[in-house]
Amino acid sequence: MTRTDTLPASRALAFLRMVTGLGLLFGAYGKFMILRVAGAVPFPVVALHWQLELPARLANWLVEHPTGMLATIVRDLLLPHGPLAAALIAWAQVIAGVLLLLGLRTRFASILTAFVAISLALAAGYRDSQNSRPYLMLMALAFAFFVGAAGQTFGLDGWRHERRRNREL
User: Fold this and answer.
1) What was the pLDDT predicted at 6?
2) Quick one: CA torsion of 135, 137, 138, 144, rounded to 10 degrees?
3) In the prediction, which pLDDT does 1 show?
4) How far apart are CA 99 and CA 97, in angstroms?
5) What are the backbone dihedrals phi and psi of residue 66, each rounded to the nearest 5 degrees, phi first?
6) Which residues of the chain have pLDDT under 70?
7) Which of 38, 107, 114, 145 is the most exposed place for a label (fewest CB within 10 A)?
8) Cβ neighbours of residue 117 under 8 Å, at least 6 residues apart?
9) What is the pLDDT of residue 36?
10) 79 Cβ partners below 8 Å, 6+ apart?
């Protein structure tokens, strides 16, 4: 198998990577608000409605799933630190979206994407298991990006790799 045999697949993976990055950024948009420091300097902060909504969703999930290791993590780690968990998820979503869009550090970005997908699947899955299906698809995409080295085509990872290889010659 030569490089030209895998070129359409790597281009498709790069397209999926960029679309997923944009989707993560658009999803994170509603979780932030702009605070003006000294009345002029814009500073993004996690919105209060998201800091209150995530712990409420996790508490509802915990009512339906009271036992197990995941329930213990939600009960002992996420619920007591709900606003912090909400902020971490929102910022991880922004960082993963930017990294995936640029094709930079795609393996790290795919791990962040999987973290965000698992957290949001828990928060969405308390009503019905169908609400968490998009997040399961996001986890599958994150796995594909991790395994497929999605940043090599149309991404900064490929440019960094070529630059490093040219320097070794």
Assistant:
1) 66
2) 150
3) 45
4) 6
5) -80, -15
6) 1-6, 125-130, 163-164, 166-169
7) 38
8) 135, 136, 138, 139, 142
9) 85
10) 55, 58, 59, 62
Structure tokens at 123: 């928060």
Question: What does the alpha-carbon distance between residue 25 and residue 35 come to, in Å, rounded to a whole number?
Answer: 19
Q: Is 2 helix (H, G, I), strand (E, B) or coil?
A: coil
Structure tokens at 159: 């440019």
Amino acid at the residue 15: F
Q: How many residues does the structure list for the chain?
A: 169
Q: Show the tokens assigned to 89.
A: 């998820």
Instruction: List the structure tokens of 39.
Output: 């009345």
CA–CA gap between residue 161 and residue 5 (Å, rounded): 20
- Give the global pTM: 0.83
CA separation for the pair 75, 71 (Å, rounded): 6
What is the phi/psi pair of residue 81, to 5°? Answer: -115, 45
Q: In terms of DSSP bridges, do strands 41-46 and 32-37 run parallel, antiparallel, or are they unpaired?
A: antiparallel
- Read off φ and ψ for residue 156, nearest 5 degrees: -70, -20
Q: Which residues contact 133 (CB under 8 A, 6 or more apart)?
A: none
Residue owning tokens 């300097």: 41
